[in-house]
């Protein structure tokens, strides 16, 4: 090494170190370029995966309306309370604090449950309670700021511990998320059609399930940047993909008609002692279902509630496993829509189909006659008629009115199985109706009905009067509608249209005719026969003055269950001259009175009267009916007592005058109230006169004559609701509009329902 | 020799009694380029420290105050600048006089911290700090760095002839011993990064001081063997092996294991996510996302990652160049000074600055394995900033007498006192 001066050497060394440092910086700069520019995007992507939280924006579930826009199901905002279990330190006191605070503000959640859910868990999302409503949520929000001081201990390597006091905020562990709660304002009304959505917001039955996708809408996304503690950083990094709210569903169900139907079914369910009562009301021209009900039904707001009987049965179960399985079987039973998912033997109601097939195929005509001897032997089997003595010689119309089994066996045998099956198929009994409800029963050949290949002569004979095969109630009412509407088999439906949030229609159900099954002439002929069934046949208790109800009763044996179990039914439509609505009323396993003509027809009569009035279908009375019609009371208040009295007496009314005044101050019945012919009017001549009152007697099982006498003696007016074409001698009172024992004013009108018990049976 | 030093110090104080302040104070203009670069870096550092710290501060300060960390730093910066200017008026030979005392004092502190450390919960293994009433925590290794620079500058200039002579190895051995002593004590604190820096400073000081190049060749050979042994025997493995694995994987763009990602690799990985997100022009000032609690303590050792994320590659390179220019300007000042001690002092200080900045950025960018080194003027930490600015004051003080023939202080003192 050559000798250098000290400063030269220093300069050299400084430059050397300087260059090395500069090189070092250059290396770092190059590496920085590698990270930032070459692999920058990879790192950026990973960073974003870290930072961005992609969360769903739940769309609001669509509203379900009835045909008049009445809301039947609606979602409301609710909240979900969860715990970030990983954010609770492993400290008994803190865990206890969190559980205690939260159980203190949440209803129905105890400390123990919270501890069990969170202890040992590291999950950041342990749901403590969902579908929490506003007030309860606000309590949780208020509690979030609560804090708890505790001593955290750290262990050092040498075994000693360091203590440190820390403050724990409830907010650190507890979070609140959006949730939705589904309300059904009318509880159990139309529950089998509407169905319910579970806590997860997914429809479980009915329209809620069938139209789940449409009701649900499209989930949106909210992409936000969050920091490592999952708090949102700022709004700047927010990207929103809007949620599309679910469509509103407008049902064909009319809640008023639905209520009429349910009231009727509830009544018959109570009085008949049956295991169930089912009914459908349908628009015969379009197939729109106006009402559909199962009794007993369930509360949509509490779908997991059991009836008292079911609860008792669960209690009796031996172990928990059995209880659970029993409970779940009850749930499914309650949710099940019998009218769509279950089958029954239609019995005599089916005779209208046999009749239609015979007439349409030309096998028989209106004048077809048969002599009933009370029984018929078919291939060694004797089949009895409901009239054991035999109906004698009847023509077709009379055979249908009498619901004579041997008569229809003869038609069936005359048709032959090919023709019979062709019409059986044409009326839609071998296929689903295609209704827009879930779990529609799929007819199975040789199980629910006889296939053409395997149909024996006995099968054919019994099928002709509606036994040995099964159909769903919906299939049956669709067939009834076919006869009513001129022969077109329609597809029943319960959803009229889907609407968006602004009420614009996004989907409209077009009524669809599957095929023409019978001609308009056949349809009209069968209709006229069915009207006679109601006027003076087995369906006479369904008669409603002015509304021209057509129908056919049915009482089928539940062959699968053995002797003594029946399904009573009544299929009908009205008015006969231009059928609008059809109804099918079913009572499963009635006790005592088991005939459709006894128990289902009064329900139908009331239903038609209410429904047709509600639908503003003008009644068309016969002269005879018109003469019997009751009229509204005129106004006598303010007139002279003597004038009023003489006028009323002229019109054959009974008059009672209370008080000594000259001028009528009030009257019972009031002005405009219906008053029966020969009824009583009480006139008061001073306002402080004591009112005349009376106690309502129990009219059940009274005849029309007895009723009139009793009513007159207690000072009540009675309106007789009964088939006015029938003779008074066969009518029996079965219900009254005012309860027995009630204290009412004299002159009050009471409506008494009468029915006939003779000649209304399908089963002897 | 120590005795003589003490006597000289006594002499200076006896001069004070006679009221001659002039021998303490230096005159002349300081180097404007150095100060300008310094101020630019300092302000950039403060601004970036605020941006990097406010989220962490909001979450971790009492009362959720986003300015908490920043204001603390700003306070120290202002005090530091004042101190820097005061120091810049103090003659560098005053510092020279205290060199031995300072070294002894700092060694005492290094021992004291081992006996009575201030333990931060969760970091019980680290004995890096001790607490001082009214001041807070003091990191003696920081002081040791300055003390070692001053001592070596003094010793190397004092024994210049012996050092440069090939046959007289005694001063070299003494210097090596002192460097090793300090390093050893710092190592016991469990502070490897400081050991590396102090060792590097010591070696480079010896190199600047004229120590024979063959000594370094020997030392380098020894170091290579030591590292080799450390790697082979696994001594290093327990402490830094994981980090080295992570570093190598990241350098080769390999996938880390889930455990590595969550533990040893977390910080450096988050740092790279931040840096990578920056791209050429950055996400804009204040727009870092990684500072939102992803990158642990973003205002400390890894602040440069946030700088890269917000300002982008070009501006990050400019900041690195500013550091390099500051260091090289310091070297320029040193080379333009006539006093050997002043030269070595400035070189040492500037080397320390450059080394720390370079290593920090190298760590943050994954160029070298992860080890805790703060970025000068950027990272939060009041006492470090204060120490740094005092050092800068010394450089400015030296720069005032650049290109001047320095007066012999001792002669002057003796002349005044009439002693010999």
Largest interface, counted by CB within 8 Å of the partner chain's CB:
A-B, 44 and 55 residues
Q: Determine and state the CATH class of the largest domain in chain A.
A: Alpha Beta
Number of helices of chain B: 17
Please state how the strands of the largest beta sheet of chain B are arranged side by side: 1-2
Name the CATH architecture of the largest domain in chain A. Answer: 3-Layer(aba) Sandwich
How many β-strand stretches of chain A?
33
Number of separate structural domains of chain A = 3
User: What's the alpha carbon Rg of chain A, rounded to whole Å?
Assistant: 38 Å
> Low-confidence parts of chain B lasting 5 or more residues at pLDDT below 50?
none
Mean pLDDT of chain A: 87
Query: What composes the largest sheet of chain B?
Result: 2 strands, antiparallel
% residues in beta strands of chain B:
under 5%
Protein structure class of chain B: mainly alpha
Low-confidence stretches of chain A: none
Overall form of chain A: elongated
Quick tags:
heterodimer, A: 764 residues, alpha+beta, Penicillin-binding protein 2a (Domain 2), Beta-lactamase, five-stranded antiparallel beta sheet, B: 420 residues, mainly alpha, two-stranded antiparallel ribbon, 17 helices, 2 strands, 70% helix
Notes on the protein architecture:
The complex is a heterodimer of chains A (764) and B (420). Helices cover 35% and strands 24% of the residues of chain A. With 764 residues, chain A is of the alpha+beta class. Chain A folds into three domains: 55-251, Penicillin-binding protein 2a (Domain 2), CATH 3.90.1310; 339-620, Beta-lactamase, CATH 3.40.710.10; 629-756, no CATH class. In chain A, the strands form eleven sheets. In chain A, strands 2, 3, 4, 7, 10, 18 and 19 form a seven-stranded mixed sheet that branches. Chain A has a five-stranded antiparallel sheet with strand order 12-11-23-22-21, with helices on both faces. A three-stranded antiparallel sheet of chain A has the order 1-8-9. In chain A, helix 14 (351-361) packs across helix 16 and helix 14 runs antiparallel to helix 19. The relative contact order of chain A is 0.08. Chain B is mainly alpha-helical and 420 residues long. Helices cover 70% and strands 1% of the residues of chain B. Chain B starts with a helix and ends with a helix. The model of chain B has no long low-confidence stretch (mean pLDDT 83). At the A-B interface, helix 1 and helix 2 of A face helix 9, helix 13, helix 14 and helix 15 of B.
């Amino acid at each position: 090494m050559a000798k250098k001066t000290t400063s030269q050497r220093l300069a050299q060394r400084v430059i050397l170190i300087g260059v090395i440092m500069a090189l070092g910086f250059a290396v770092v700069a190059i590496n920085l370029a590698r990270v930032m520019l070459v692999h920058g995007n990879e790192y950026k992507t990973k960073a974003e995966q870290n930072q961005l939280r992609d969360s769903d924006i739940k769309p609001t579930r669509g509203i379900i309306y009835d045909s008049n826009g009445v809301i039947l199901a609606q979602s409301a905002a609710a909240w979900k309370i969860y715990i970030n279990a990983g954010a609770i330190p492993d400290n008994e006191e803190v865990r206890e604090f969190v559980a205690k605070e939260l159980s203190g503000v949440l209803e129905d959640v105890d400390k123990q449950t919270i501890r069990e859910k969170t202890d040992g868990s590291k999950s950041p999302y342990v749901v403590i309670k969902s579908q929490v409503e506003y007030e309860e949520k606000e309590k949780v929000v208020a509690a979030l700021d609560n804090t708890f001081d505790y001593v955290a201990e750290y262990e050092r390597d040498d075994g000693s511990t360091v203590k440190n006091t820390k403050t724990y905020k409830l907010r650190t562990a507890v979070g609140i998320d959006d949730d939705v709660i589904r309300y059904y304002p009318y509880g159990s009304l139309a529950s089998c059609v509407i169905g319910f959505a579970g806590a997860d917001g997914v429809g479980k039955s009915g329209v809620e399930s069938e139209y789940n996708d449409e009701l649900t809408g499209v989930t949106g996304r909210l992409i936000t940047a969050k920091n490592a503690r999952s708090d949102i950083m700022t709004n700047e990094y927010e990207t929103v993909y809007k949620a599309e709210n679910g469509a509103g569903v407008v049902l064909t169900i009319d809640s008023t008609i639905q209520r009429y139907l349910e009231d009727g079914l509830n009544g018959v369910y109570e009085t008949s002692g049956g295991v169930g009562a089912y009914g459908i009301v349908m628009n015969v021209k379009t197939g729109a279902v106006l009402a559909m009900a199962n009794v007993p039904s369930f509360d949509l707001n509490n779908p997991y509630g059991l009836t008292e009987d079911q609860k008792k049965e669960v209690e009796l179960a031996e172990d928990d496993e059995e209880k659970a399985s029993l409970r779940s079987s009850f749930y499914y039973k309650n949710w099940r829509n019998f009218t769509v998912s279950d089958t029954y033997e239609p019995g005599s109601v089916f005779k209208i189909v046999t009749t239609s097939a015979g007439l349409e195929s030309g096998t028989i005509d209106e004048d077809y006659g048969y002599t009933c001897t009370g029984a018929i032997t078919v291939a060694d089997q004797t089949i009895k008629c409901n009239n054991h003595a035999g109906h004698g010689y009847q023509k077709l119309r009379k055979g249908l009115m009498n619901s004579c089994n041997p008569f229809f066996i003869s038609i069936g045998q005359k048709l032959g199985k090919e023709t019979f099956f062709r019409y059986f198929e044409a009326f839609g009994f071998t296929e689903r109706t295609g209704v827009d409800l879930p779990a529609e029963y799929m007819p199975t050949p040789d199980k629910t009905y006889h296939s053409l290949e395997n149909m024996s002569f006995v099968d054919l004979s019994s099928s002709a009067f509606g036994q040995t095969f099964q159909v769903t109630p919906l299939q049956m009412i669709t067939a009834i509608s076919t006869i009513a509407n001129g022969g077109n088999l329609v597809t029943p439906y319960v959803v009229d249209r889907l609407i968006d949030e602004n009420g614009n229609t996004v989907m409209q159900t077009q009524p669809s005719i599957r095929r023409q099954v019978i001609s308009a002439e056949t349809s009209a002929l069968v209709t006229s026969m069915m009207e006679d069934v109601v006027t003076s046949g087995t369906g006479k208790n369904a008669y409603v003055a002015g509304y021209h109800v057509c129908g056919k009763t049915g009482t089928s044996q539940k062959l699968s269950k053995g002797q003594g179990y029946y399904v009573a039914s009544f299929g009908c439509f009205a008015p006969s001259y231009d059928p609008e609505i059809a109804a099918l009323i079913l009572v499963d396993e009635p006790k005592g009175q088991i005939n459709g003509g006894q128990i289902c027809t009064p329900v139908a009569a009331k239903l038609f009267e209410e429904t047709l009035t509600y639908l503003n279908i003008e009644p068309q009375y016969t002269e005879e009916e018109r003469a019997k019609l009751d009229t509204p009371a005129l106004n006598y208040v303010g007139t002279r007592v003597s004038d009023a009295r003489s006028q009323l007496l002229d019109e054959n009314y009974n008059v009672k005058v209370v008080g000594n005044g000259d001028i009528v101050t009030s009257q019972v019945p009031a002005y405009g109230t219906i008053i029966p012919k020969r009824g009583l009017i009480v006139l008061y001549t001073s306002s402080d006169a004591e009112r005349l009152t009376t106690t309502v007697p129990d009219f059940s099982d009274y005849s029309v004559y007895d009723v009139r006498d009793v009513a007159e003696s207690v000072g009540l007016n009675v309106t007789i609701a009964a088939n006015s074409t029938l003779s008074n001698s066969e009518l029996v009172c079965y219900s009254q509009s005012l309860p027995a024992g009630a204290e009412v004013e004299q002159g009050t009108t009471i409506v008494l329902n009468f029915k006939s018990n003779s000649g209304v049976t399908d089963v002897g | 020799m120590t005795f003589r030093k003490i006597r000289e110090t006594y002499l200076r104080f006896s001069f004070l009694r006679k009221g001659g302040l002039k021998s303490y104070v230096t005159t002349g203009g300081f180097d404007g380029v150095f100060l300008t670069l310094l101020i630019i870096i300092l302000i950039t550092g403060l601004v970036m420290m605020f941006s990097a710290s406010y989220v962490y501060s909001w979450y971790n300060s009492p009362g959720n105050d986003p300015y908490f960390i920043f204001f603390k730093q700003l306070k120290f910066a202002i005090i530091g600048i004042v101190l820097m200017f005061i120091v810049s008026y103090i003659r560098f030979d005053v510092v020279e006089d205290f060199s031995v005392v300072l070294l002894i004092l700092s060694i005492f502190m290094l021992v004291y911290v081992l006996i009575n450390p201030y333990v931060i919960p969760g970091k019980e293994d680290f004995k890096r700090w001790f607490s001082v009433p009214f001041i807070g925590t003091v990191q003696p290794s920081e002081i040791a760095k300055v003390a070692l620079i001053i001592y070596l500058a003094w010793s190397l200039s004092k024994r210049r002839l012996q050092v440069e002579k090939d046959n007289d190895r005694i001063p070299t051995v003494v210097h090596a011993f002192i460097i090793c002593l300090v390093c050893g004590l710092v190592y016991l604190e469990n502070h490897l990064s400081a050991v590396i820096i102090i060792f590097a400073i010591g070696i480079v000081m010896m190199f600047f001081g004229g120590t024979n190049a063959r000594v370094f060749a020997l030392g380098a050979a020894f170091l290579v063997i030591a590292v080799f042994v450390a790697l082979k025997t696994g001594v290093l493995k327990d402490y830094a092996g994981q980090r080295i694995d992570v570093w190598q994987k990241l350098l080769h763009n390999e996938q880390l294991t889930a455990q590595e990602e969550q533990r040893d690799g977390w910080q450096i990985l988050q740092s790279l996510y931040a840096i990578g997100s920056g791209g050429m022009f950055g996400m804009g000032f204040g727009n870092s996302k990684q500072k939102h609690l992803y990158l642990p303590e973003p205002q400390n050792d890894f602040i440069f990652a946030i700088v890269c994320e917000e300002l982008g590659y070009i501006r990050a390179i400019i900041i690195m160049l500013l550091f390099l220019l500051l260091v090289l300007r310091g070297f320029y000042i040193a080379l333009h000074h006539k006093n050997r001690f002043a030269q070595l002092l400035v070189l040492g200080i500037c080397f320390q600055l450059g080394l720390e900045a370079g290593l920090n950025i190298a760590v943050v960018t994954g160029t070298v394995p992860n080890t805790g080194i703060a970025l000068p003027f950027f990272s939060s930490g009041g006492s470090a900033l204060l120490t740094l600015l005092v050092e800068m004051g010394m450089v400015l003080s030296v720069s005032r007498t650049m290109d001047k023939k320095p007066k012999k202080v001792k002669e002057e003192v003796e002349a005044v006192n009439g002693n010999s």
